[in-house]
Protein backbone atom coordinates (compact mmCIF):
# COMPACT_ATOMS: atom_id res chain seq x y z
CA UNK A 1 0.00 0.00 0.00
CA UNK A 2 1.43 3.37 -1.03
CA UNK A 3 2.14 5.87 1.76
CA UNK A 4 1.21 9.49 1.13
CA UNK A 5 1.85 12.61 3.20
CA UNK A 6 -0.51 15.54 2.58
CA UNK A 7 0.59 18.98 3.82
CA UNK A 8 -1.92 21.84 3.76
CA UNK A 9 -2.75 24.63 6.20
CA UNK A 10 -6.46 24.63 5.33
CA UNK A 11 -8.08 21.96 7.57
CA UNK A 12 -11.11 21.39 5.32
CA UNK A 13 -8.96 20.87 2.22
CA UNK A 14 -6.56 18.64 4.17
CA UNK A 15 -9.37 16.40 5.41
CA UNK A 16 -11.01 16.29 1.98
CA UNK A 17 -7.78 15.14 0.32
CA UNK A 18 -7.22 12.56 3.08
CA UNK A 19 -10.70 11.10 2.60
CA UNK A 20 -10.34 10.98 -1.20
CA UNK A 21 -7.02 9.16 -0.96
CA UNK A 22 -8.11 6.72 1.74
CA UNK A 23 -11.21 5.88 -0.30
CA UNK A 24 -8.87 4.84 -3.14
CA UNK A 25 -6.78 2.59 -0.90
CA UNK A 26 -3.83 4.79 0.01
CA UNK A 27 -2.30 5.03 3.48
CA UNK A 28 -2.40 8.74 4.35
CA UNK A 29 -0.69 10.92 6.94
CA UNK A 30 -1.56 14.60 7.26
CA UNK A 31 0.31 17.68 8.40
CA UNK A 32 -1.51 20.95 9.03
CA UNK A 33 1.54 23.09 8.25
CA UNK A 34 4.99 22.91 6.70
CA UNK A 35 6.86 22.61 10.00
CA UNK A 36 4.90 19.50 10.98
CA UNK A 37 5.30 18.22 7.42
CA UNK A 38 9.09 18.40 7.76
CA UNK A 39 8.90 16.41 11.00
CA UNK A 40 6.89 13.69 9.24
CA UNK A 41 9.38 13.59 6.35
CA UNK A 42 12.31 13.24 8.76
CA UNK A 43 10.70 10.37 10.68
CA UNK A 44 8.85 8.26 8.10
CA UNK A 45 9.36 7.25 4.48
CA UNK A 46 6.66 8.23 1.99
CA UNK A 47 6.06 7.24 -1.61
CA UNK A 48 4.44 10.62 -2.33
CA UNK A 49 4.23 14.03 -0.67
CA UNK A 50 1.44 16.39 -1.69
CA UNK A 51 2.21 19.90 -0.52
CA UNK A 52 0.39 23.20 -0.67
CA UNK A 53 2.70 25.94 -1.92
CA UNK A 54 1.18 28.87 0.02
CA UNK A 55 1.59 28.26 3.75
CA UNK A 56 2.84 30.55 6.52
CA UNK A 57 6.29 29.75 7.88
CA UNK A 58 7.56 26.69 6.03
CA UNK A 59 6.03 26.86 2.56
CA UNK A 60 5.77 24.29 -0.23
CA UNK A 61 9.05 25.33 -1.85
CA UNK A 62 10.88 24.65 1.42
CA UNK A 63 9.21 21.23 1.57
CA UNK A 64 10.34 20.42 -1.99
CA UNK A 65 13.93 21.52 -1.28
CA UNK A 66 13.99 19.50 1.96
CA UNK A 67 12.74 16.40 0.15
CA UNK A 68 15.39 16.76 -2.55
CA UNK A 69 18.06 16.52 0.16
CA UNK A 70 16.53 14.13 2.71
CA UNK A 71 14.34 11.85 0.57
CA UNK A 72 15.18 12.33 -3.12
CA UNK A 73 13.20 9.26 -4.20
CA UNK A 74 9.94 10.62 -2.76
CA UNK A 75 7.52 11.74 -5.46
CA UNK A 76 6.03 15.24 -5.13
CA UNK A 77 2.77 16.91 -6.17
CA UNK A 78 2.49 20.67 -5.58
CA UNK A 79 -0.91 22.31 -5.15
CA UNK A 80 -1.93 25.94 -4.82
CA UNK A 81 -5.05 28.01 -4.51
CA UNK A 82 -3.16 31.26 -4.96
CA UNK A 83 -3.28 31.29 -8.76
CA UNK A 84 -5.64 34.29 -8.88
CA UNK A 85 -3.55 36.24 -6.37
CA UNK A 86 -0.03 35.15 -7.27
CA UNK A 87 -0.32 33.70 -10.78
CA UNK A 88 1.03 30.29 -11.71
CA UNK A 89 4.63 31.24 -10.87
CA UNK A 90 4.75 29.26 -7.63
CA UNK A 91 3.53 26.09 -9.36
CA UNK A 92 5.97 26.61 -12.23
CA UNK A 93 8.80 27.03 -9.71
CA UNK A 94 7.64 23.88 -7.92
CA UNK A 95 7.98 21.90 -11.14
CA UNK A 96 11.42 23.36 -11.80
CA UNK A 97 12.45 22.38 -8.24
CA UNK A 98 11.32 18.77 -8.59
CA UNK A 99 7.55 18.43 -8.28
CA UNK A 100 6.38 15.83 -10.78
CA UNK A 101 2.88 17.25 -11.02
CA UNK A 102 1.05 20.43 -10.14
CA UNK A 103 -2.61 21.11 -9.40
CA UNK A 104 -4.38 24.44 -9.06
CA UNK A 105 -7.15 24.63 -6.45
CA UNK A 106 -10.00 24.10 -6.81
CA UNK A 107 -9.62 20.71 -8.47
CA UNK A 108 -12.10 17.90 -8.88
CA UNK A 109 -11.88 14.55 -7.13
CA UNK A 110 -11.34 12.93 -10.51
CA UNK A 111 -8.43 15.28 -11.36
CA UNK A 112 -6.86 14.82 -7.94
CA UNK A 113 -7.05 11.03 -7.83
CA UNK A 114 -5.93 10.70 -11.46
CA UNK A 115 -2.91 12.94 -10.80
CA UNK A 116 -1.92 10.95 -7.71
CA UNK A 117 -2.30 7.62 -9.51
CA UNK A 118 -0.42 8.93 -12.55
CA UNK A 119 2.55 10.07 -10.48
CA UNK A 120 2.69 6.88 -8.41
CA UNK A 121 2.38 4.61 -11.44
CA UNK A 122 4.86 6.46 -13.64
CA UNK A 123 8.56 5.77 -13.79
CA UNK A 124 10.38 8.26 -11.58
CA UNK A 125 12.53 10.78 -13.40
CA UNK A 126 16.25 10.01 -13.28
CA UNK A 127 18.12 11.59 -10.40
CA UNK A 128 20.93 13.95 -11.43
CA UNK A 129 24.39 12.59 -10.68
CA UNK A 130 26.04 13.91 -7.53
CA UNK A 131 28.49 16.78 -8.05
CA UNK A 132 32.10 15.70 -8.48
CA UNK A 133 34.21 15.60 -5.35
CA UNK A 134 36.77 18.37 -5.01
CA UNK A 135 40.27 17.14 -4.37
CA UNK A 136 42.51 19.05 -2.05
CA UNK A 137 46.02 19.62 -3.43
From TrEMBL:
Matching InterPro entries: Bact_response_regulator, CheY-like_superfamily, Sig_transdc_resp-reg_receiver
Residue stretches making up the Response regulatory domain: 3-120
GO biological process: phosphorelay signal transduction system
Keyword Phosphoprotein in annotation: yes
CDD domains: REC
PROSITE patterns per record: RESPONSE_REGULATORY
Protein name: Response regulator receiver domain protein (CheY-like)
Organism per entry: Chlorobium luteolum (strain DSM 273 / BCRC 81028 / 2530) (Pelodictyon luteolum)
Taxonomy of the source species: Bacteria, Pseudomonadati, Chlorobiota, Chlorobiia, Chlorobiales
